[in-house]
Amino acid sequence: MAAVRGAVPQWKLKDVEELKELMKNYQTIGIVSFRGVPAGQMQKIRRELRDKVKIKVVKNTLIEKAIEEAEEFESLKEFLGDQVAFVASDMNPFKLFKELEKTKEPSPLKPNQVSPVDVVVEKGPTSFPPGPVLGDLQMGGLPAAIEKGKIVIKDTVTVVRAGEVVKPEVAKALSLLEIKPVKLGLDTRVLMEKGIVFTPEDLAIDVEAVSGQFTEAYTKALNLAVNSAYVIPETAEILIAKAFMNAKNLAVNAGLPVKEAIPEILGKAYSEMMAIASLLPEEALDEDLLAKVKSVEVQKVETVSVEEEKKEEEEEVEEEEESKEEEAIEGLGALFG
């Protein structure tokens, strides 16, 4: 049966309904470009993302129709154009963006395409022996020559700049050198979650930097809470430990004989006793206390001796260095008169 003139083909209606279902049933939807992606790579992308992302390649007009019928997605229309696909996922936009970025693979420039980047070839040796390759590289604008049985690039050179059309001979030279300056894959144009639009500029965040900022903010907040004695689960243990140490120090300084402070009080008393004993004449001390005082004095003398020896060694090293400098100066004086 011939198609009714003016009737919309069923496959178009089906595609529009499928797009509307994706918009309705998935957390995040979006539009991506696949310009220049080879068919083999596209199949690989579909295979790897099958369980994470729904990818539907349809005409722009059908995506626009589906967007118009689902009014809350109207803002996506401005991102249509060129070769695009519709994507849907239950991942949040930031995770989905990372997955889409993983689809990009290094790729060579093709003849007559507009280069999106400056392509710089560094000087240095290649893996090629002398032969026809030399002429191909030179035709591509590279300062190639033969040195020690190898083809080398004599100088670093920019063979094509961003926005310029890639000449076939330049593309061939870059291909020979296995230079792949561009990445091809699904290029995110826009993602949307709960009516909020995210562009690549919003999604391309430095995860490590942001994580570091959160860590810094947490540390500052914790310090503020501790210093202001603000009790929350994260500060409770720290505040209790701080209060215990303050109470213990107070007990030690006040000489309160509580269980936790007794070892420090006794240690403080012993130190004060030894300090007083060291000021008294020997006949005022019993044998045990006198022996302890002399032991402390010997330790002090040994410590002072070690420090003096270290200081003398340092002075000797400085004198040797000064002597070497003087000899060097005298030598220069003798050399230049």
TrEMBL record:
<dbReference type="InterPro" id="IPR043141">
    <property type="entry name" value="Ribosomal_uL10-like_sf"/>
</dbReference>
<dbReference type="GO" id="GO:0000027">
    <property type="term" value="P:ribosomal large subunit assembly"/>
</dbReference>
<keyword id="KW-0694">RNA-binding</keyword>
<dbReference type="InterPro" id="IPR050323">
    <property type="entry name" value="Ribosomal_protein_uL10"/>
</dbReference>
<comment type="function">
    <text>Forms part of the ribosomal stalk, playing a central role in the interaction of the ribosome with GTP-bound translation factors.</text>
</comment>
<comment type="subunit">
    <text>Part of the 50S ribosomal subunit. Forms part of the ribosomal stalk which helps the ribosome interact with GTP-bound translation factors. Forms a heptameric L10(L12)2(L12)2(L12)2 complex, where L10 forms an elongated spine to which the L12 dimers bind in a sequential fashion.</text>
</comment>
<comment type="similarity">
    <text>Belongs to the universal ribosomal protein uL10 family.</text>
</comment>
<dbReference type="Pfam" id="PF17777">
    <property type="entry name" value="RL10P_insert"/>
</dbReference>
<keyword id="KW-0689">Ribosomal protein</keyword>
<feature type="region of interest" description="Disordered">
    <location>
        <begin position="304"/>
        <end position="337"/>
    </location>
</feature>
<keyword id="KW-0687">Ribonucleoprotein</keyword>
<dbReference type="InterPro" id="IPR022909">
    <property type="entry name" value="Ribosomal_uL10_arc"/>
</dbReference>
<dbReference type="InterPro" id="IPR001790">
    <property type="entry name" value="Ribosomal_uL10"/>
</dbReference>
<dbReference type="GO" id="GO:0003735">
    <property type="term" value="F:structural constituent of ribosome"/>
</dbReference>
<dbReference type="GO" id="GO:0002181">
    <property type="term" value="P:cytoplasmic translation"/>
</dbReference>
<dbReference type="GO" id="GO:0070180">
    <property type="term" value="F:large ribosomal subunit rRNA binding"/>
</dbReference>
<dbReference type="InterPro" id="IPR043164">
    <property type="entry name" value="Ribosomal_uL10-like_insert_sf"/>
</dbReference>
<dbReference type="InterPro" id="IPR040637">
    <property type="entry name" value="Ribosomal_uL10-like_insert"/>
</dbReference>
<keyword id="KW-0699">rRNA-binding</keyword>
<dbReference type="GO" id="GO:0022625">
    <property type="term" value="C:cytosolic large ribosomal subunit"/>
</dbReference>
<feature type="domain" description="Large ribosomal subunit protein uL10-like insertion">
    <location>
        <begin position="113"/>
        <end position="179"/>
    </location>
</feature>
<feature type="compositionally biased region" description="Acidic residues">
    <location>
        <begin position="310"/>
        <end position="329"/>
    </location>
</feature>
<dbReference type="Pfam" id="PF00466">
    <property type="entry name" value="Ribosomal_L10"/>
</dbReference>
<protein>
    <recommendedName>
        <fullName>Large ribosomal subunit protein uL10</fullName>
    </recommendedName>
</protein>
